[in-house]
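hey m, so remember when u said the tokens were messed up on ur end? i reran from scratch. heres the input so u can diff it against urs
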Amino acid sequence: MANLVGRMIPPNIEPGFLLRVFWRMIETFQIALVGTAIGVVLSLPFAWLSAKDLTPLGPFRHVSRMLVSLFRTVPDLVWALLFVSAVGLGAVAGTMTIIVDTIGFCGRFFAEAMEDADKRPQEALFAIGARRFSVLCGAVLPDAMPSLINTTLFALEKAVRSSVVLGLVGAGGIGQELKVAFDLFQYKNASTIILVIFVIVVLMEFVTERLRSKVQ
């Protein structure tokens, strides 16, 4: 390890290489942001179908819960390998992986937030003949919104870290550049990429923490 670290110092700070790393990092953000946005939107119907006393599926809600559990249980890299095999190398496979991972993560916590929502407004709407979807929109979502936003921010933070790793199997982003650097024994390039990833992850955690504090 000492020998490897010695070959990684000093990091490569050539302008041309830094520019390439910058655009790869932008691609990583795009994968994380688009994948999280689509995944959150798709998580809402999954959560509604899984939530006790709210689902229109009755006892068959467990089918939706099992599907969400499947998305969450299978590791990101396995999904990435499946999507790379299906659609080829690049950011599309990475985005699809983040979508599935976000559904597995948000679907569970969204369902729990809906189940924990204040029951009194729901009972009032049911008493006047409101349908389940109307109760969801009029009582459940407004009450659960802070929790939903917090979960979404956690999902975005998680997606940024995940999208870095996905590049190692060809799903686009900065991870793909890191893999090339190690494959070609370009250790100074690798150390630069690792430092950039560290800074970006720390900044992302800081931003999402500030946003969560405002929501609370």
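this time it looks ok to me. The chain has one domain: 19-215. if urs says something different then somethings off w ur setup not the seq
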